[in-house]
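Figure S4 source data
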Amino acid sequence: MIGGLWKSASTAALVAAAGLFVGGVAMPSAKAADLGGDCCADLEERVAELEAITARKGNRRMSLTVSGQVNRSVMYYNDGFDRRLLSVDNSNTNSRVQFTGSARINPALSAGFMLQFDLNTCGRSHQVNQVDDEGCGAPIAGNPDGIGGAGDSLVGLTLANWYLSHNQLGTLTVGRINTAAAGATTVDLGGIGVVANSQPVSGFGMLLRSGAGGLSTLVGAAGANTWGGLNCGAGQAGFGGVYQADCGFSALSRRDGVSYTTPTWQGFSVSAAWGESNYWDAALRYAGEAGGFRVAAALAYRRLTDQEGDVQNVGPPGGPQKDTERRSIQGSASILHVPSGLFVNGAAMRYSFEGANIGETIGGVAGGPNRPDVNMWYVAGGITKNWFGIGNTAIYGEYGKYSDGITGLEVARSIAGLGATGVVLDSEHSWWGLGIVQNIDAAAMEVYVGYRRYSADVVTSGAQVPGGIEDLSVLQAGARIQF
């Protein structure tokens, strides 16, 4: 606690400087000013200086804990025509700092809060690409160095909430929250999530490249042509609205809203949340151990509806376009055999469309039938053991696949610039990877190296991508330190 740090520092300074213990015999306590003369003027000055520079809590009733992590890495990519080495913040679990506190109201009820800030760096591993190594959209914005003119960035507020928690009744949280579905597709007992999970984010800001060398032209939030866009058609030239990247990063789910979580019973817990933009979700989680096996799992359902007019009034005269709806069911599980260290992680998701906005087409008819469901599945496995005495070493392999991520979208809104025409009739992308994570327990540190190879295939109603879509190789090496 920060308050405890001040108390310890002040006491130690007084004891050491005033000599309150002489020859192992305790002397009567006294204030520095009571010792007479000028002998302690330096001590008083030093105590005043410590008081001035020491951070303190606003009150003594609510505890305060500062924690967080720094997760930086270097990332090498090769798209068949271009290759480069970049310095990035790891988007799997980015650098952040958080302030948490709690206070006991009575033996069964407590209250608390959380404030979490992330380093909103442009150079995240899912934002950089072949034409923008800062990841800020700099070439378009006309600023070649990113925010601040030197690659500097901003601090983002990701979570800000308070909660009430009762031993028998559960926990109610209000504010900027992680909803019930958050993390439902990234359950991991193998300890590889720092670099590998069902979110294929490393390198996913990269632009698609045709076999003839052509580079896709859509970038940023409206760029469903990026590798990440193949997850779910993240942007439709500005028509994505609140759905932008909603299934692209299936593990993320933050909203301004309210959530409730039950107490854990026999390893099970249930949670539900409501959030802005007509969002709600619910999740079931389990964690347990038996017969030398640890098991953890999560299953979640999400539903999101919002007025398309929030993005652009594209409906008939006199009113915005009719609301559309998105639903998803998603989950993951992990099994670890404790004696051997062998583990398997698995995840899956189905994302469904109900209604189409004007940016989504099937058969060339704007606002036409629903797009087909987007399906994702992922599996990873390996072994984690403390072979060297400094912490577990996890060695893994992985494979994942998305189907129909941009099926139903016009080429101009999804893979523009690659030489294709018409509407996307079929689309899929997959990746395989392998890597190693070394824990250094004494420093709360994980050092990692991970390699991924991404492949994609798109079929359109007109001209096809000449030479197909080039594979993308990404190698990421770095470390996460938690504090």
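Figure S5 source data
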Amino acid sequence: MNQVKRSFSLLLVATVLFTQAWSQNTPVSTGTPSTNKFKWNMFGLNRVHIQDFGISDQYLDTCTTCGDNNRFLGKANSTVGLSFYNNLSEKVAFSADFGVGYGYISRNNASAADAEKKWSSSARADLYYHFYDSRLQVQPFIYGGMQASLRAGDALLSMPVGLGARYMIMNNNGMITAQVGYGLGLSQRMRNHVNYSWGLYINLSKKKKQTEKTIVIDAIDSDGDGVVDAKDKCVNEPGPVNNNGCPMNDRDKDGVMDEKDKCPDVPGSIINEGCPVLDRDGDGVSDNFDKCPELPGPVSNDGCPLSDRDKDGIDDKNDKCPDLAGSPSNHGCPDDKPKVVEQKKDEPFSMWIPEGNHYRSISGDSLRYIIYFEFDDFKLKDQSYSLLREVENFLKKNSNWEVVMEGHTDLEGDVDYNLKLSEKRAKVGKQYLMSYGIKANRISTDFFGKSKPVVPTFEERLGWMNRRVEAILVRKK
């Protein structure tokens, strides 16, 4: 019957602790932040542990010789000592205790000596988990730990587990703890028991307040450059983090800092380490890459001038009349009105026939049609369809003829990109002819990128003539 009463008493104590914690569920008005960003330590002014063996199955109510030893705490060992408490995080804490005990410690196979009160030494460690916000004055928790006692040369180990609460006092600089649990005997001589504990702690380090002051000081950034004053070597002058908060020097204002600028007093290019890119002939090709730095020339010719005997802007290798000034539209020949030259016996018949912006060259063994494209595009223009229909009709009427589609681009852009663009232009012409029934084996493609310009210039008023596909019809051999 006494055993039932003791069990009921333990349940009542646990219920009272949690009820008190829940009823006082209000934050302490101390200005403590909602998140526990600090760790603090407390020293136990008083720490008491009681191990009660009176309700173990060794001491039954049928004992007639137990006397007062069979009542509540009749078989108990009380330990008083010092304690250290550390708040590890928002909800987790740790304590370590060292103390001296006096009383009964019940063992398996109890002997007569176990009925005698004796002195013992004790060491204990507990780990706590709290359920609520650290600002609350009352904090319920569960705990688990290890306790070792040395009594008359015997080492006795147990593992207490249970629940309890802490009550914060002195503006969070002190606390009172109370807990109850069940001690599991780990050594053969240690009986299972009920464990009661309470303690009084005070915060001696006041580490929390020092940390808060440090945080406030470290957050100051007088010049607003994103580098706090504690790490800023130029507190009153804004500067980047990689220069310790000091401004970067750039005397010539070219975007290259003086420490990396080989020409700090002359504006230059980043790719030239802050020095200006020289182009003595002013042709747009820097001297580093200009094979003729004293003579202006196009990029396509590495900055060297093109040979142009008649000075018509078309280099001699692409000028069909290199000694007569002409226009790009007439391949460097004078812009005479188109005229038909009478065909003589055994001589090829030839003439130039303008077709708006397109031109058709006719000779006895070949026909040449030229279609043009927009900048950086390979879509056919409306004017191109009529010429391609002529090519299609001619091939259908003359089965012994084939066509070669040659793709070209202007001089803008790099070589590889233009080569691919000229390929797309040649293939779009081929696909158009195939869509009208011309077999693929009668259509071949070739592409040259910007390697064969009609007009060696970047000027748009002439450079558009380089964006072309030449459809060359030839008689099969």
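Residues 136 and 363 are 102 Å apart (CA to CA). The domain at 2-205 is CATH 2.40.160.20 (Porin).
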